[in-house]
User: Which sequence fits this backbone?
């Protein structure tokens, strides 16, 4: 019976995947049927990439990948080919992580974590950890290839080992290289960055991205004309820029071609500004203009600027939770709003938007990291506070969010603190369960 259920699960996923492809707009190059590849850090060797003889790392087989290939990746820590710490793929593929070594069970946030990371060594790559870009692919007649589907599912991105930290104390990142100590700069790039072709559907789900230091999104999905994006059940924690960034590559006015997003059940926590004195970045989620999006049952928490930054997208927002954001919960251009004012004051929000709320919640990160975060000292804090429209949470209120003992005075730290390293084990407990149905949930064990 178990085998039958597993086979049924595989069939249902394949049917869903095929149904999401806009067949009439899929060009010949992207109509390839594709094959299944298998990767296992612990049992892999060579480049056959079969279930019986899996490859050792995704980076080792990228040059073999064809449109619509499906890559299944077992538990383990992956650093890419030559420990370069970045994988770039230029054809539409589907990536599924979180398998056991037999590829029969998936449990990506618990028993069988697939962790993509790297090392900080001078002259290593600083590109996005997973970068899928298909918008430059062309057919034999020179026209750009279109259509197909891109999926990233069940991958944990941890850029901590790729970052450069001040005095190697893991408390504050540095964005410049140090040739003297043979250290790279902290990568100024996201964890999962996807740029699709026209009419390409993109799905990012069940992923974790942490310790990245981009200007834009830790998870960044750019959809072009006629395409759709689904960003579902992901967890971003301790990143700069935007936790999740929904982007558009379409500049026209044809309503039928404007990219459409569905963004639901994600949790985005502790998103930092670009640097300690920057006036940009620091939002849990951001949207480009010229796209439509349904945004529901997400948690936007502790953005150093705000919760959601809308640059002109037409949004329908339902049942989202905002908590602990510094300057605003919602922003449109220069209009900054608390969550209670969104439905009254927002210009780009659908009238049926409802159920969004502000609530202080307890976040189950490890006490070690919570102590560091609660004790950080921000540069030019007085200047930052002068522009605040939503009151900051007091020091003891912040400590209560983490379940820490209250203190009568401020916690002092000797070192500068900016994007301090959080480990996978310390971060994951904060993303395993939703709050009143809002936010991500640990993916159920299943097969693909």
Assistant:
């Amino acid at each position: 019976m178990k085998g039958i259920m597993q086979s049924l699960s595989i069939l249902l996923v394949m049917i869903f995947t095929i149904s999401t492809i806009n067949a009439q707009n899929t060009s010949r190059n992207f109509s390839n049927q594709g094959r299944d590849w298998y990767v296992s850090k612990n049992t892999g060797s060579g480049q056959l990439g079969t279930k019986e003889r899996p490859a050792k790392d995704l980076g080792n087989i990228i040059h073999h990948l064809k449109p619509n290939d499906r890559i299944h990746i077992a538990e383990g820590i992956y650093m890419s080919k030559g420990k370069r710490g970045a994988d770039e793929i230029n054809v539409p593929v589907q990536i599924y992580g979180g398998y056991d070594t037999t590829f029969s069970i998936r449990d990506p946030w618990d028993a069988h974590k697939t962790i993509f990371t790297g090392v900080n060594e001078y002259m290593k790559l600083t590109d996005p950890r997973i970068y899928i870009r298909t918008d430059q692919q062309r057919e034999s007649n020179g026209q750009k290839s279109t259509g197909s589907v891109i999926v990233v599912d069940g991958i944990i991105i941890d850029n901590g080992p790729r970052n450069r930290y001040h005095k190697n104390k893991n408390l504050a990142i540095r964005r410049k290289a140090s040739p003297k100590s043979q250290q790279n700069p902290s990568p100024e790039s996201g964890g999962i960055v996807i740029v699709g072709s026209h009419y390409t559907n993109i799905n990012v789900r069940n992923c974790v991205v942490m310790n990245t230091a981009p200007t834009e999104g830790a998870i960044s999905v750019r959809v072009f004309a006629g395409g759709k994006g689904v960003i579902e059940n992901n967890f971003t924690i301790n990143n700069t820029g935007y936790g999740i960034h929904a982007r558009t590559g379409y500049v026209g006015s044809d309503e039928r071609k404007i990219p459409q997003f569905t963004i639901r059940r994600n949790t985005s926590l502790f998103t930092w500004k670009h640097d300690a004195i920057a006036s940009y970045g620091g939002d849990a989620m951001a949207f480009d203009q010229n796209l439509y999006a349904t945004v529901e049952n997400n948690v936007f928490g502790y953005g150093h600027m705000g919760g959601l930054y809308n640059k002109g997208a037409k949004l329908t927002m339902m049942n989202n939770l905002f908590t602990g954001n510094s300057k605003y919960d919602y922003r449109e251009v220069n209009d900054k709003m608390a969550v209670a004012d969104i439905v009254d004051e927002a210009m780009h929000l659908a009238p049926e938007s409802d159920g969004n709320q502000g609530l202080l919640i307890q976040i189950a990160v490890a006490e070690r990291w919570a102590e560091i975060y609660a004790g950080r000292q921000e540069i030019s804090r007085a200047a930052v506070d002068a522009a605040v429209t939503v009151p900051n949470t007091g020091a003891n209120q912040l400590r209560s969010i983490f379940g820490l003992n209250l203190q009568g005075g401020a916690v002092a730290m000797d070192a500068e603190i900016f994007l301090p390293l959080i480990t996978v084990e310390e971060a994951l407990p904060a993303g395993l369960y939703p709050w009143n149905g809002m936010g991500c949930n640990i993916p159920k064990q299943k097969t693909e």
